[in-house]
Amino acid sequence: MEKDAVVLVSGGLDSATTLALARRDGFAVHALTFDYGQRHAIEIERARAIARDLGAATHLVLAIDLRSIGGSALVSDAPVPRDRDDPTAGGIPPTYVPARNTIFLAVALAKAEAIGCRDIFIGVNALDYSGYPDCRPPFLRAFEDLAALATRAGVEDGARFRIRAPLLHLTKAEIIRLARDLGVDLAKTHSCYDPDDRGRACGRCDSCRLRTKGFREARIPDPTIYVP
Amino acid sequence: MEKDAVVLVSGGLDSATTLALARRDGFAVHALTFDYGQRHAIEIERARAIARDLGAATHLVLAIDLRSIGGSALVSDAPVPRDRDDPTAGGIPPTYVPARNTIFLAVALAKAEAIGCRDIFIGVNALDYSGYPDCRPPFLRAFEDLAALATRAGVEDGARFRIRAPLLHLTKAEIIRLARDLGVDLAKTHSCYDPDDRGRACGRCDSCRLRTKGFREARIPDPTIYVP
Fold first, then answer.
1. Which residues of chain A neighbour B105 with C-beta distances below 8 Å?
2. pTM listed for this prediction
3. Which residue from B162, B156, B125 is spatially nearest to B141, judged by alpha carbons?
């Protein structure tokens, strides 16, 4: 019998690859996606298609309006940085969403405890990334420590929830090759922070630039549709 | 100038008292309430009245559907325990909501970072309580450790977010006396897990029993309207 796991799925390249890895490793996947008021809400539809394609057992799309909290260019109409060669130059960029992964992992933990599983997958990456604090190993370890104290399962049964981040130390090119090898339909993944109203990628935000660089280095044709 | 603080306000006795304490200590209060699918949704209206009465600077009521996650009698139609003398006998009761305070504190952290404050108040109590793991001091400390790693403020500025739980070691009777002394309108606070459709308290759930015992021990008349 397959072990259950909760997998955070944004609709992006990294979380799609993470879902595919969880399936390869024999997990029954309970996909969890957030409709949080992100300006690139098209990724939610991509997340649905990806979860279906890759054989998720269940998929919950949960609404939580982080726009009402603010503090980020991703949940407001503030401009996102463009045409930067180094997304981490100048510190954590304005696309950082306050405590986003803390909120997402907290809900994933609730889901994991409710269905009685101990494994939570998240597609964070600390190499070709934007320097977000909540993508780093010390954050993930601190969350595991918290989870043991926060839950009935942790306190009564001594359960240790595992935050699995299998992409943590891969380059974007390595992730893209892995995704291809695992059968992820790369054309369905969405990375752009600032797509046009037809869902076409801008090609210029940090996320697009990390993605295009990754495809180039992986020597795989980039199927993304960019704004002309 | 007043320092800002985020205060979690459920509409219950403990969080109302916590809000009053934050005001007394000179904080400008940003109240945060969750509409999470709780069966006792009347507490949300009480939270609005309490935040207004006690002079909160802002009040955000955020919807997040924990009913879609389940795992608790408070977000389902499963029965809540009644007529128990000791709410912690038999371990953590079925009214425990998986990872609820982790989720609530994560959103409070996002709000605190977005408005640039460092203080988060929560009305948890580890004395006259139901044994929930996420009401205990080690959980609160672990959350502070996480917050320092999870946020831009923590990583770039070395900020330390403080989870303030001023009721942690008070009895329910002490909380009730404190609430009265701080001018909390006790009649507006709602504790019952299982009110009738007119919002009247059942008098028999763990939360009602802790409350009535507290009023009795405090020798203060209980203004709660109970089901006859």
1. 106
2. 0.97
3. B162
